């Protein structure tokens, strides 16, 4: 499977497992899981056929581990805009986490903090390098430090997804260290 096809199948899976399962007739269970055979059949019926081998390759090759497979089912590890309960237990975060963004969002972030936007949670990274890669997807990256230790002490709840992404409902601006200029 070539790199272009891998990306195309991965994006298709993300779109339909995270955001628009109904577009191809899927109904995920409350945890976001769908039967793999049902997914493959639905994709083929809607003009995007792929094989189980291609799906397995995309799951295994994805360096961000965007998808989880279990007992003949698949789901996105996080990033849903549809209602799901990933069943992740609350965990104590490290003292600092990081968020990658771009300069054009800094004014809103200073005013409102980090909000989940169309997702269920704000996504945070355990290290600056990962946050830099996340921010770079939309332009020149800006990395914000999040005082997750203080947030946790103040009652904010954190979860960590199967692929290591830290999740929290929101990050109020007072817990952010933003760059002075950009």
Automatic annotation (TrEMBL):
Pfam families for this protein: PTS_2-RNA (PF01885)
Major enzyme class: transferase
SUPFAM superfamilies: ADP-ribosylation
InterPro entries, per the entry: Ptrans_KptA/Tpt1, RNA_2'-PTrans_C, RNA_2'-PTrans_KptA, RNA_2'-PTrans_N
Gene Ontology biological-process annotations: tRNA splicing, via endonucleolytic cleavage and ligation
Alphabetical UniProt keywords: NAD, Transferase
EC number: 2.7.1.-
Family as reported in the entry's similarity comment: Belongs to the KptA/TPT1 family.
PANTHER family associated with the record: PUTATIVE PHOSPHOTRANSFERASE (PTHR12684), TRNA 2'-PHOSPHOTRANSFERASE 1 (PTHR12684:SF2)
Functional note: Removes the 2'-phosphate from RNA via an intermediate in which the phosphate is ADP-ribosylated by NAD followed by a presumed transesterification to release the RNA and generate ADP-ribose 1''-2''-cyclic phosphate (APPR>P). May function as an ADP-ribosylase.
Name of this chain's protein: Probable RNA 2'-phosphotransferase
Species for this entry: Streptomyces argyrophylli
Gene for this chain: kptA
């Amino acid at each position: 499977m070539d790199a272009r096809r891998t990306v195309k199948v991965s994006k298709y899976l993300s779109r339909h497992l995270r955001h628009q399962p109904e577009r191809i007739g899927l109904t995920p269970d409350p945890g976001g899981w769908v039967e793999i055979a049902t997914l493959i059949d639905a994709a083929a019926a809607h003009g995007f056929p792929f094989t189980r081998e291609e799906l397995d390759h995309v799951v295994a090759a994805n360096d961000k581990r965007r998808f989880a497979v279990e007992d003949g089912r698949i789901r996105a590890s996080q990033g849903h805009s549809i209602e799901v309960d990933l069943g992740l237990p609350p965990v104590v975060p490290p003292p600092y986490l990081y968020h990658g963004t771009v300069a054009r969002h800094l004014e809103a972030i200073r005013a409102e903090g980090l909000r989940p936007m169309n997702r269920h949670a704000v996504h945070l990274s355990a290290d600056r390098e990962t946050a830099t890669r996340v921010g770079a997807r939309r332009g020149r990256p800006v990395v914000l430090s999040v005082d997750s230790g203080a947030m946790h002490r103040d009652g904010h709840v954190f979860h960590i997804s199967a692929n290591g992404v830290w999740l929290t409902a929101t990050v109020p601006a007072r817990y952010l260290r933003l760059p002075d200029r950009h």
